[in-house]
Amino acid sequence: MKKAPCCEVNETHPEQIERVKNRLPDEDTLFALADLYKLFGDSTRLRILYVLLDTELCVCDIAELLGMTVSAISHQLRLLKQAALVKYRKSGKSVLYSLADSHVQTILAQGMEHITE
User: Which of 23, 49, 52, 77 stands 20 to 30 A from 104 (CA)?
Assistant: First the structure.
């Protein structure tokens, strides 16, 4: 594997370092962000988010659409709900899931745009 290009001279730029330090999020925030992105690292969870892009569905519908068990979908929805990526509402005897907000749509759209450039 090829190494990334490096400077020919080992010298730092204190002004730039200080400017970047001032805008760098704290460790707890970065850990929380990393945990969020880990959820997007699973194709099943991505598929669930995509089927919820413009509609709300119950667990049974999502399981049918994705060819998976209700139990498997329910487990993934629990993780997505804990991360505030999906929300649910009860309608009679059904529980309908949808994306939590437009941020989730934006994350999916920007990720897709990035990989298809």
Answer: 23
